[in-house]
Write a structure and sequence with these properties.
There is one protein chain. With 347 residues, this protein is an alpha/beta fold. The protein has 2 domains: 149 residues, 3-Layer(aba) Sandwich (Rossmann fold); 155 residues, Nitrogenase molybdenum iron protein domain (Rossmann fold). Helix content is 44%, strand content 13%. It contains 15 helices and 11 strands. The strands form 4 sheets. A 4-stranded parallel beta sheet has the order 8-6-10-11. Strands 3-4-5 form a 3-stranded parallel beta sheet, with helices on both faces. Helix 6 links the parallel strand 4 and strand 5. The longest helix is centred in the first third of the chain and has 24 residues. The N terminus is likely disordered.
Amino acid sequence: MISRRAALSLLAGSAVALGPARLLAQTGKRTVTDGAGRKVEIPATIGRVFAAGTPAAISLYTLAPDRLVGWPEPINEERRAYLPAKYAALPVTGRLTGRANTANVEVVLKNQPDLIIDIGTIAPIYASLADRVQQQTGIPYLLLDGALTRTPALYRQLGEILGAAAEAEGLAAYAADLLALVRTRVAYVPRDQRARVYYARGPEGLETGLAGSINAEMLDFVGAMNVAATGEKRNIATVSAEQILAWNPEDVVTIDQRFYQAVWHDPIWEEVLAVRQRRVFLAPNKPFGWFDSPPAANRLIGLKWLCNKLYGGLFTGDLAAETHDFYRRFYHIDLTPVQLTALLEPA
């Protein structure tokens, strides 16, 4: 009869002989290096995922909707109509990250996820948050790069993490082809004919995404000049009406319908070139914004829309058909003709 101590000694010796990879396989764990360079041990099989913010939720929903625990923020009735009922009804879990976070450790534990994922800007403050939440909950927490140009790589990494490589490759290839096509077409626009754009946020349009920020990177990608090039190291800023008049942008892109409806009659904006030339564009936003709001894969369909608004005629395809295809691939829904019209022809 072998003693308990001897058995434990043999087990330890076997562990050394097996090596790290075999050990991880036997314990049902594997190690992943996230976008911040953190080495995180995660379960071999992922069933439930808690999205730390809306970009993560959208990315997870597009790839593996049945793994998503819930939405970080409420989705109003108008936007829920652009999601299958099953997923529109997912609970609101709150956000762990971003401004005015609404979730906490207790909420995470209550939802019993196998993994927490945050997608967006890679910065020490977010890595520190991931370490803290992981330590407090015991649940692995990954931080992944959400830059627009990284979208194909992000899907492939998510596919590997979730065991959904085949599904991820389809979305990654779509994103890679679209980014390459837009980059090629924009190259035909002479530098001196590139758009000078102001990105208006909020009901008065005085909040903006600064040049170089993740919120305005679509402008960078399509070769436009973001007039809000202040050199500040932050994403969002509030500017004055005097500053906008000084910039005098030729085009304005907005995600706020209140601003879009009011700008045509606002004395603060009436002298701005974009308003005088009727070149203020409201980005579609159902179920998620086509420009920023939030910065995730939802922006892919917005790239052609933006190019057509800024450089009319750059793309000659059928945007309605392409929108229908995108929503089927990424949002798991077949749009009706009425929904397509509402997206492409905002009131």
